[in-house]
UniProtKB/TrEMBL annotation:
It comes from the Bacteria. GO terms for molecular function: 5'-methylthioadenosine deaminase activity; metal ion binding; S-adenosylhomocysteine deaminase activity. Zn(2+) binds at residues 67, 69, 215, 303. It comes from Cohnella phaseoli. Substrate binds at residues 96, 148, 188, 218, 303. Its EC number is 3.5.4.28, 3.5.4.31. Binds 1 zinc ion per subunit. Belongs to the metallo-dependent hydrolases superfamily. MTA/SAH deaminase family. It is an enzyme of class 3 (hydrolase). HAMAP family: MTA_SAH_deamin (MF_01281). Residues 60-406 form the Amidohydrolase-related domain. It catalyses: S-methyl-5'-thioadenosine + H2O + H(+) = S-methyl-5'-thioinosine + NH4(+); S-adenosyl-L-homocysteine + H2O + H(+) = S-inosyl-L-homocysteine + NH4(+). CDD domains: ATZ_TRZ_like. This is 5-methylthioadenosine/S-adenosylhomocysteine deaminase.
Length: 434
C-alpha cells in the first residue's frame, strides 16, 4: 500500500468554517488519511512511501464543473457573438449532426486535457455518444456525472430510440470506473422536449433511481415561449411534470421570479450557474445572491467551450464573484469564499457527492489540486481565498489527484497524451468543416 505525505504546504479546507493553514496531509487508498497543522508527526514521516515538499504550493479540493458539453471543445471559436437560439439552431446543431463517436471521443479528450490542467477533478457532461465520453473519463482518471442529453424535436420512433439510448447508457455506466462515473437523466430543455416526452424521462429517473439534469430558463425568449406553449413558466412546467420529485440540477436558471426561487428552494433543486456562457450569449444574469439567500445550492459550470470559450473554473469563480457585485451595486454579495464554495462544496452537494469530494477532510476521497502560490499574483500573503478567486487562473495549477491517483505532475499529464489529443481534435474539426 502506498502512502503519500505532503509536507510544509498551505491548505485550504472548504467548509462552512473554511480554514487556511500551514501543515501536512497524507493520502492512502484513494482517501485523505490524515492531515494536520504545523510539523509532520514522526509516525507520519515513518509510514510515508512518497513525500512531496509542499513549500510554495497551496492544496485545495479539486474543482467541480457542474454543467458542460465536453465534445463542444471541437467547436470553440466557430460561431462567436450570437444569441442562444441563433447559435444553437444555425451553427451548433447543424455541425453536431455530423459528429461521429470519434469526434465526441477526441473533443471530450481535448476537454479532459484542459480540465485537468486547470484544476477540475469532477465534471458534468450532457451530450450524445456518451459511451465515448465515459471512455475518456475512465482513461483520464477524472470523476464525472454523465448524461445522454436528448432533444425531442423529432419523430416518435426517433424519440423512442433516444430515450432507450439514455436508459441503456445509464444501466451500463452508472457506478463504473471504480465509482468515478455517475449518471443522470436529461431531457435537454423544456423547449426541445414536449411535455409527454419529459414525463418519460421522469419515469425513467424514478425507475433507475437517478437524478435529473436539464437546461432551464436560460433566456427570456425561452420563458415567453413556455408561457405561450404551455400556459406557465418553465419552473412551474417542470414541477407539474414531476421532474423536481427527483434530485434535480438545472443549468442556467437565469430568468426567475421570486415565486420560482422559493419553489426551487422548497423542492431542493440545485442550480448550475454558468456566468461566462450567459454573458457571451447575452442571455442575462442569474439572480445568484437571491438564490443563495433562499437556500438554493448554486454551483458553477462552464457550459461547452463553444460558448465560454474555455473550461477554466478559476475564471468562472472570478466572474461569479465580480458580476453579481456589479449588477447589484452591493460589493458584499458573492464574496470570494462563497465563489470558492460554489466551485467545490456546493458542486459536490449538487451532484449528491457531499461527504465524498469537494472538501479537504479526513475520510474524503483524495481529489486534490496544488496551486503554485510562489508567483507575484499570490503576493503578499494577505488572504489566499481572495487571491485564488480574484487573481488565480487555471494555469496556476501544478498537481492534480483524483481518488489519490496523480493525473497532473508538474503540469505534465500522466494519463493522457496531450500532443496526440490536440492533433486529433484539430483533424476532427477540419473534417467537420469540410
Ligand atoms: C443534446 S446534447 C446537449 C446539447 O446542448 C446544446 N447546448 C450547448 N450549450 C447550450 C446552452 O447554453 N443552452 C442550450 N443548449 C446548449 C449542445 O449544442 C447540444 O446539442
Ligand atoms: Zn449547456
Amino acid at each position: 500500500m502506498t502512502r503519500l505525505l505532503i509536507k510544509q504546504g498551505t491548505f485550504v479546507t472548504i467548509d462552512e468554517q473554511f480554514s487556511v493553514f500551514q501543515g501536512w496531509l497524507a493520502v492512502e487508498n484513494g482517501q485523505i488519511a490524515a492531515m494536520g497543522e504545523g510539523e509532520v508527526p514522526q509516525r507520519e514521516s515513518e509510514s510515508a512511501t512518497e513525500i512531496l515538499d509542499g513549500s510554495g504550493l497551496l492544496f485545495m479540493p479539486g474543482l467541480i464543473n457542474t454543467h458542460g458539453h465536453a465534445a463542444m471543445s471541437l467547436l470553440r471559436g466557430m460561431a462567436d457573438d450570437l444569441v442562444l437560439q441563433d447559435w444553437l439552431q444555425n451553427h451548433m446543431w447543424p455541425t453536431e449532426a455530423k459528429f461521429t463517436g470519434d469526434d465526441v471521443y477526441w473533443g471530450s479528450a481535448l476537454a479532459a486535457v484542459e480540465m485537468i490542467k486547470s484544476g477540475t477533478t469532477t465534471f458534468v457532461d450532457m451530450y450524445d455518444h456518451m459511451q465515448r465520453v465515459a471512455e475518456v473519463t475512465e482513461t483520464s482518471g477524472l470523476r464525472a456525472s454523465l448524461t445522454r442529453g436528448v432533444i425531442g424535436l423529432c419523430p416518435e420512433d426517433v424519440q423512442k430510440a433516444k430515450l432507450e439510448d439514455a436508459i441503456r447508457f445509464a444501466r451500463e455506466w452508472h457506478g463504473q470506473a471504480n465509482g468515478r462515473i455517475n449518471v443522470m437523466i436529461s431531457p435537454h430543455a423544456p423547449y426541445t422536449c414536449p411535455p409527454d416526452y419529459i414525463l418519460k424521462f421522469v419515469e425513467a429517473a424514478h425507475e433507475l433511481d437517478l437524478p435529473m439534469h436539464t437546461h432551464m430558463s436560460e433566456t427570456l425568449a425561452e420563458v415567453e415561449q413556455n408561457v405561450r406553449d404551455y400556459g406557465c413558466r418553465p419552473v412551474e412546467h417542470l414541477d407539474r411534470l414531476g421532474m423536481f420529485s427527483r434530485p434535480t440540477l438545472v443549468a442556467h436558471a437565469v430568468h426567475l421570479n421570486d415565486e420560482e426561487i422559493a419553489l426551487l428552494a422548497e423542492r431542493k433543486v440545485a442550480v448550475s450557474h454558468n456566468p461566462i456562457s450567459n454573458l457571451k450569449l447575452a442571455s442575462g444574469v442569474a439572480r445568484v445572491p437571491d438564490l443563495l439567500k433562499a437556500g438554493v445550492t448554486v454551483s458553477l459550470g462552464t457550459d461547452g467551450a463553444a460558448s465560454n470559450n474555455n473550461l477554466d473554473l478559476f475564471q468562472e469563480m472570478t466572474t461569479a464573484a465580480l458580476l453579481h457585485k456589479g449588477v447589484s451595486g452591493d460589493p458584499t454579495v458573492v464574496p470570494a469564499v462563497e465563489a470558492l464554495r460554489m466551485a467545490t462544496l456546493y458542486g459536490a452537494r449538487s451532484l449528491g457527492l457531499e461527504g465524498a469530494v469537494g472538501q479537504l477532510k479526513v475520510g474524503l476521497k483524495a481529489d486534490i489540486i496544488a496551486v503554485n502560490i510562489a508567483q507575484a499574483h499570490f503576493v503578499p500573503r494577505t488572504d489566499y481565498v481572495s487571491h485564488l478567486v480574484y487573481s488565480g487562473r487555471g494555469s496556476d495549477v501544478v498537481h492534480v489527484w483524483v481518488d489519490g491517483k496523480q493525473l497532473l505532475r508538474d503540469r505534465q499529464l500522466t494519463t493522457l497524451d496531450e500532443e496526440k489529443i490536440m492533433a486529433e481534435a484539430e483533424l476532427c474539426y477540419r473534417r467537420l468543416r469540410a
